[in-house]
Amino acid sequence: VQLQAYGGGLVxxxxxxxxxxxxSGHHFSGYVxxxxxxxxxKEREFVGSINWSGGNTYYADSVQGRFTISRYKPGYTxxxxxxxxxxxxxxxxxxxxxxxxATEYDYWGxxxxxxxxx
Length: 118
Hints:
The protein has no helices and eleven strands. By secondary structure, it is mainly beta. Strands 2, 4, 5, 6, 9, 10 and 11 form a seven-stranded mixed sheet that branches.
C-alpha cells in the first residue's frame, strides 16, 4: 500500500490551496481516507476524513466550512481543498487510510508542507 500526498506550498492568508493524495497497491473501497496535520512543536491532529465507498465526510471543528475533502473514481485519489487559509493552518499535512471498522490508521503517506503567511 502506498500513499502519495502532494500539492503543498506557500500561500497568503485568505488564499486557497488544494492537496492531493494518490493511493495505490490495494482495493480501497471499504476504507476511510483521512487527512492529518502537524504544526511545528505541536501534536499531529485530525483534519478530516472521507469514506471511500459512500463519500461521507467528517471534519475537525477548526476547518469545518473552509476545507473540503473529495474522492475521485476510478482509481483512488482524494483531494483536500483548503479555502480561507489562516496562518494557524501552517503545518505538514499527511494523508492516511484505514479499513472502515479499524480504530487507527494503518497506512500513511509522506507529508507535504503548507505554509500560510500573514
